[in-house]
């Protein structure tokens, strides 16, 4: 006889805890309500296996799969409801959760209620007090009328908050780039002025002959300073371009 033990992923995406990839963390946080929804669908499916089948192996396997799905729901709800105490979360993900869950904490009541009702119905079936098809159908109707819309709305709100943060980060990055480019341009202007002063100083030193020798040394130092300034300016421009090219956001 084949052992009926469905398996599936119940762990939270590790991207949610990555501090080096805000884009991945944003996608992971928006996926949390979808994870709850997916696991609830699995719970309902396997609940049907517990309630409706006469095969003990399928019934036991379905209940084991339900418990696995319970674990997935609990993992996601722990983040959605307890994010304040999770210092390991990506900072941007924490900010999205803070923004969204302040107004949507009540949306977590439905999955908790559904989880509890499904578990109680399954335990009844295993004790021999099998729920009726009408009870199962009522739970399905409640799920699709109340639970699913709330989870979809929560996921949409998570994405909106992430998009708003992305736009804010982009605006800040472009503003910083503008300031850096402006500073580089001013440095270029100063370097050109210093180079011109150096050129004039060398001309005057040549005219003065031996008496202007010390002045010529100073002119050479000024020229060297100008060249170094231009080099630093070019490096600033390159660094700014590299930062913008590698600025990873959602």
Structure in words:
- There is one protein chain.
- By secondary structure, the protein is mainly alpha-helical.
- The chain has two domains: 14-169, no CATH class; 175-248.
- Helix content is 80%, strand content 0%.
- The chain has six helices and no strands.
- Helix 1 (22-52) crosses helix 3 (91-104), helix 1 (22-52) runs parallel beside helix 4 and helix 3 packs across helix 5.
- The two termini are 49 Å apart.
- The model has no long low-confidence stretch (mean pLDDT 79).
Brief summary of the model shown:
By secondary structure, the chain is an all-alpha fold. It is built from 6 helices and no strands. The chain has helices spanning 22-52, 56-82, 91-104, 109-126, 133-208, 213-245.
Write out key terms for the chains shown:
Chemotax_Me-accpt_rcpt, rod-shaped, transducer, mainly alpha, 80% helix, transmembrane signaling receptor activity, 250 residues, 6 helices
Q: Percent of residues in beta strands?
A: under 5%
Order of helices and strands: HHHHHH
- Uncertain segments: none
What helical percentage do the residues reach? Answer: over 70%
The strand count comes to 0
Largest sheet: none
Shape label? rod-shaped
What is the arithmetic mean of pLDDT? 79
Pfam family, one: MCPsignal
Family: Belongs to the methyl-accepting chemotaxis (MCP) protein family.
Protein name: Methyl-accepting transducer domain-containing protein
Domain Methyl-accepting transducer: 187-250
């Amino acid at each position: 006889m084949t052992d009926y033990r469905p398996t599936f992923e119940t762990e939270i995406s590790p991207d949610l805890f990555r501090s080096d990839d805000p884009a991945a963390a944003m996608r992971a946080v928006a996926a949390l309500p979808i994870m709850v929804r997916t696991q609830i669908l699995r719970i309902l499916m396997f609940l049907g296996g517990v309630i409706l089948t006469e095969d003990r192996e399928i019934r036991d396997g379905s209940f084991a799969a339900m418990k696995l799905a319970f674990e997935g729901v609990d993992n996601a709800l722990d983040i959605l409801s307890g994010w304040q105490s999770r210092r390991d979360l990506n900072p941007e993900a924490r900010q999205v959760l803070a923004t969204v869950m302040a107004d949507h904490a009540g949306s977590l009541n439905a999955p908790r209620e559904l989880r509890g009702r499904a578990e109680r119905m399954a335990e009844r079936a295993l004790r021999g007090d099998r729920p009726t098809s009408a009870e199962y159908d009522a739970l399905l109707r409640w799920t699709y009328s109340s639970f699913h819309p709330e989870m979809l709305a929560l996921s949409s709100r998570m994405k909106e908050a992430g998009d708003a943060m992305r736009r804010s980060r982009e605006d800040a990055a472009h503003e910083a780039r503008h300031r850096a480019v402006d500073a580089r341009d001013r440095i270029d202007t100063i370097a050109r002025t210093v180079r011109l002063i150096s050129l004039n100083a060398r001309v005057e030193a040549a005219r003065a002959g031996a008496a202007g020798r010390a002045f010529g040394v100073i002119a050479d130092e000024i020229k060297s300073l100008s060249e170094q300034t231009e080099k630093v300016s070019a490096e600033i421009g390159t660094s700014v371009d590299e930062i913008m090219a590698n600025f990873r956001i959602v």
